[in-house]
Amino acid sequence: MAIQRETLRLLDGMRVSMLAPVDAAAQALIRSWGTAWNELAAEWDAALVDLVAASKDGRWPSRRQVTRARRAQKAMEATRAALLDLSRDLPVVVTQALPAMTADAADWAQRLAASQYPPQAGTAMQVITTFDRVDPAALEAIARRTTQQVTALSQPLSAQAEQAMRSALVRGVALGDNPRRAAQVMLDRVEGAFNGGRNRALVIARTEMLDAHRAAGMAQDLANADVLAGWDWVATLDRRTCPSCLAKHGTRHRLEEPGPHDHQQGRCARVPATKSWRDLGFDLDEPTDALPDARAWFNGLPDEDQVAIMGQARLDLLRSGNASWEDLTVKRTTPGWRDSWAPRPVSDLAA
């Protein structure tokens, strides 16, 4: 069945609904990491003042001096404890949103499918009453799997952030004639390493929550496989859309195929596609598909927007015919994470 304007309107609503709990979780994590750093900053400031005082001839203390400094050890111990707490809180933040989020996804899957029926089938609510509802146990299983995945991914966060902070601390800095400025530079480096852990936590939370929403939509689709022909990969068409997502936009996939498995934190949506109206029992001609064509949309953009999305080198390859639209995407395998579709590197396209 062709996607209709009502389907696209509902899709916009689903995206808003889907992103609300994701953004709320992200804000909660940002607040937690910010509060933790504010409590640690004074410890690190004192430790760095001591290290600046221990410097000689404008050179940062040696690795041995840094690792043995009492205040630096104290600051690192406090940081280690804070990072462990933050990494343990991550699954809790995500888990709290999952029951409502997966149930919401199942509702949207039904509404998206119903919007593709002809008016003769009745109102959307009347069509939905003919659908089977996904078993709540299936949604609970999705929530459990997501929690387990987030827990596994969050375990190395504290160790990774701590190691990055140690590296920043012992790397050294040109002191010049302003010890306080030197201390501030090092404090900024250590804070940046600390927030690197926060950024990884945000990627984990956003990606896994979005995948849980898609998995719930898939479960609802499978419950009504008799009226569905598959699902369509639908990207958000704006300047933030990557080349890979543009290439995947509008592609049809089997109901049993999970996805869309776009890159981490990707915004692409899974849209169930109903069977033809005649296959559904309506002797009617179907309207033209209202889903925008990604390439036509892209070709209508100003040059500066096309460059912003593709990059000049990739765009030149595409325009010259040395790379095709389908070449823009490639499957990536990341240990501990699901496979994902990401932009193919320009060097590979050129080859």
Structure description:
The protein is built from twelve helices and five strands. A hairpin with a 7-residue loop joins strand 4 and strand 5. The radius of gyration is 25 Å and the shape is elongated. The mean pLDDT is 90. By secondary structure, it is mostly helical. The strands form two sheets. It has a three-stranded antiparallel β-sheet with strand order 2-1-3. A two-stranded antiparallel sheet has the order 4-5. Helix 1 runs antiparallel to helix 7 and helix 10 crosses helix 11.
User: Count of helices?
Assistant: 12
**In terms of structural class, how would the helical and strand content be classed?**
mainly alpha
Biggest sheet, in brief? 3 strands, antiparallel
Relative strand content: 5-15%
Strand order of the largest sheet: 2-1-3
Compact overview of the structure:
The protein is mainly alpha-helical and 351 residues long. The chain has helices at 5-53, 63-68, 70-114, 124-128, 136-154, 157-171, 179-222, 243-248, 294-299, 303-310, 312-320, 346-350, and strands at residues 228-234, 252-253, 269-274, 329-332, 340-343.
